[in-house]
Amino acid sequence: MIPLTWRQFRTSALVAAVVLIAVGGVLIATGPHLAHLYRATVGACVAGGDCSATQAAFLRHDSTLRVWLGVIVVVVPGISGVFWGAPLVAGEMEAGTFSLAWTQSVTRTRWMATKLAVIGAASVAAAGLLSLMVTWWARSLDRVQMNQFATFDERSIVPLGYAAFAFVLGVTAGVVLRRSLPAMAVTFVAFVATRLAFLKLLRPHLLAPSTMSIALDPVATGFGSSGSLFSRGGPDTLQPPTPNIPNAWITATRIVDRGGHVLTSQILTSTCPGLGDGGPPAGGAGGGPQPVPAAAQQQLRDCVTTVGRTFHQAVTYQPASHYWPLQWYELALFVGAALVLSGFCLWWVRRLT
Amino acid sequence: MTAVIEAHDLGKRYGRRRALSECTLTIPAGHVVGLVGPNGAGKTTLLQLAVGLVRPTAGRIEVMGGRPAAGPEQLGRIGFVAQDTPTYSSLSVADHLRLGGWLNSRWDGGWAERRIDRLGLDRRQRAGKLSGGQKAQLALTLAIAKRPELLVLDEPVASLDPLARREFLDGLVDVVGEFGLTVVLSSHLVADVERVCSYLIVLVASRVQLAGPIDELLASHRPAGLEDLVLASMGRVSGPPPPPGPAPAPEVRS
Predict the structure, then answer these.
(1) From residue A177, how far is each of A186, A199, A340 by CA, in Å?
(2) Is A94 an interface residue toward B (CB < 8 Å)?
(3) Which segments of B59-213 does DSSP mark as H helices, in order?
(4) Å from B118 to nearest chain A CA?
(5) Can you list the pairs that A195-204 forms with residues at least 24 positions away whose Cβ atoms lie under 8 Å?
(6) ipTM for the whole complex
(7) How confident is the model over B28-62, as pLDDT tens digits?
(8) In this structure, what are the phi and psi dihedrals at residue A57, rounded to the nearest 5 degrees?
(9) Is A228 exposed, middle or buried (CB count within 10 Å of its CB: 0-12, 13-18, 19+)?
(10) How many CB pairs under 8 A join A and B?
(11) pTM for this one?
(12) Which of B77, B81, B72 is nearest to B5 (CA)?
């Protein structure tokens, strides 16, 4: 069964190999230069003292390539699900060849298991190799950037889990829907939805986060509505700057008192009556602190000082040390989901028609 | 008379649609059995149940004394050529022969290659580029080279032109003679059945209307030909009882 699986998969494998070699070629062509630059600029600077300008200059190198490599690592698992997984069984149903395949002296279960194992392994290998190459290439940039969670999905080992999951998800959709195109569409949507849901709802809570209390800084703290991209014009609140914790993932920042009560706009208004009256027009764009006329600036500073006597900024974050545990955890969960779906495929194919 | 296929109250539903219901029949070994009936009689469903592509929703079916597709052993004992003789269009003829070897423990590769050469097929040709008749021949070669005890063919010549049809059936007669296989062949063309079959089963709406060795059937219904016999047995179901007098008018055509 393995030779047949390989024979039917050969062309796809060849395409994948060509893509991997092409990406690898680009990385090998640019990587050593990047490493040399790192040693020559940032590496030489550390002895000298303040390096922020040197670091910023270094980060501008190959920045577009860095973004696109990240995109490729993120997209490749989805491609394996849509183009390898979804048509795997659905294609045989559409062409009628299932009746040839399933009447040879190989049980359907073995047929399905072999296909899942061989092509699943290829999908994981492709994503793993790609992630390994990109992680190697970007290592000096990542080190300078000090924001490893920003590239969490594009580096290290989680892409292997995504690839395993996406491929089996595609097979599952194909087995159930029996038609390639609908299965491909469903695979794409379901994979993106799963990844987003995991990122937003699960990953921040996989490990107990650390917390940090920071006193409110009257100079740096701004004021505005707490709206986000999706809900503009929330209640007015103080907006302290996001603290810079190297390589950590800040999942929430709130202003609370010692008892953990959040600073509401009512408390803020009663503590600082008239705050914001002289400021920028209300209902301006939500988001970051906005420039405030000089007259109102002192008022805001006084207000922050007053509020700061009872309230502080509480920062919830995943520390740098959680990076690898979270990588392993997420990998395990996606691989686990892939195994569960594989079991479902085997069961479903057995009772098909 | 040992049976290769025994079905008892066999039924298959797809959602609300009944493809086969309460079908009881016995197909004897040692014959080339023609399964004839109008469209929708359940022929294809019955054969798919027999090779284990489809699972029954009611009743039971035994093939060569075992449950269809129960394991590699059972699968190996039955060769199957599906309707429209599907092949992998991107794989070459040679790939298909290799495929047979990979998937079947009793594969007779030498015989398959000789047959492909005798048929004049180019081994490097992709199956997608073959004519309908060549594709059917390739599918038949695959089904026979796995050395089955029972060969099941579902309307194998339905989409072929008369010449390809004749070549296919002649080839079938040859291999049956060579290996002494039991064959079950569905068709809605009585002429094809008469040409290659020694046993006839007429299936109408899941019911066996007529069954027996063709020479005996003909002998007992002289001077009617096989076609008349089949049509008469079909007419008995859906039409009114045949009027006394001249030959009954056939009611169902396929």
Answers:
(1) 9, 28, 18
(2) no
(3) 72-76, 93-103, 109-118, 132-145, 162-179, 190-196
(4) 23
(5) A195/A153, A195/A162, A198/A330, A198/A333, A199/A153, A202/A333, A203/A152, A203/A326, A203/A330, A204/A249, A204/A251, A204/A318
(6) 0.87
(7) 999 999 999 988 899 999 999 999 999 999 999 99
(8) -65, -40
(9) exposed
(10) 78
(11) 0.88
(12) B77
- The beta-carbon neighbor of B75 closest among A7, A95, A107 is A107
Residue B198 has pLDDT above 60, yes or no: yes
Hey, what are A57's tokens?
Answer: 């200059």
- By CB atoms closer than 10 A (0-12, 13-18, 19+), residue A280 is middle
Give B59-62's long-range contacts (Cβ < 8 A, gap of 24+). B59/B7, B59/B8, B59/B9, B59/B10, B59/B11, B59/B22, B59/B23, B59/B24, B60/B7, B60/B8, B60/B9, B60/B10, B61/B5, B61/B6, B61/B7, B61/B8, B61/B10, B62/B3, B62/B5, B62/B6, B62/B7
Among B176, B159, B190, which residue's Cα sits nearest to residue B84? B159
- CA A175/CA A153 separation, integer angstroms: 28
Model confidence at B109: pLDDT above 90 = yes
Residue with tokens 């070549």: B167
Q: Could you tell me whether strands B78-81 and B150-154 are parallel, antiparallel, or unpaired per DSSP bridges?
A: parallel
Question: What does DSSP assign to residue B32?
Answer: E
Mean local confidence (pLDDT), B174-189:
90
**Interface membership of A259 toward B (CB under 8 Å):** no
* Residue of A5, A92, A100, A106 to mutate, interface with B, max B Cβ within 10 Å: A100
To which residue do tokens 């695979």 refer?
A187
As given in the structure block, the two tokens for residue B189 are 């063309």
Residue A56 CB neighbours (<10 A): 10
The angle formed by the CA atoms of residues A212, A218 and A222, to the nearest 5 degrees, is: 85
What is the distance between the alpha carbons of residues A82 and A162, in angstroms, rounded to a whole number? 13
Backbone angles phi, psi at A3, to 5 degrees: -60, -40
Give contacts of B71 with chain A, Cβ < 8 Å. 107
Mean pLDDT of A40-62: 83
Cβ A100–B82 below 8 Å, yes or no?
yes
Residues of B in contact with A108 (CB under 8 A): 69
